[in-house]
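Holo prediction. Input below; ligand is copper (II) ion.
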Amino acid sequence: MRTKIFPYTRLLSLLLIPALLLLAACTDRTPDETQNAPSGIEVPPPAAPPVIQAADTIQVILSDYQIDMPTSLSPGPVVFAVYNEGTVPHAFEVEGGEMEERLDPIEPGDMQHLSVELAAGRYTVYCPVDNHRERGMTTGLLVSDEAPGTL
Ligand SMILES: [Cu+2]
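Structure of the complex:
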């Protein structure tokens, strides 16, 4: 009798072991769902909400040979969106106090952004290309807490 049961139990365990291995393999798979995030690359924790105010976007139009933009702004971060609507490359420079920021020449029809933090004060804006400043591509910019446009 025993010799007849033994092969049967053995057969069962032979079937069970692969089944258990398969189960184990399946449970091993579960952590692989994170494989979209490549290991070794640390995902930075969400940044703390910035306290700084959002930058205003100020449109600047460069033409031959003129700069069209607001001449007074409130202090704080601004992004100048500088369009070259002229027929030759123009650039954009803001100078005043401790600050001197400029863009590389912009091709006709192109646009570039210049982000700056404007402190209260008087600035000069001009095109630093060749003699464009002398030809009229310059304007003053007053940054003050007074409401823009009152000057
Ligand atoms: Cu210019």
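The chain has two domains: 2-29, 56-143. That is the main takeaway for now.
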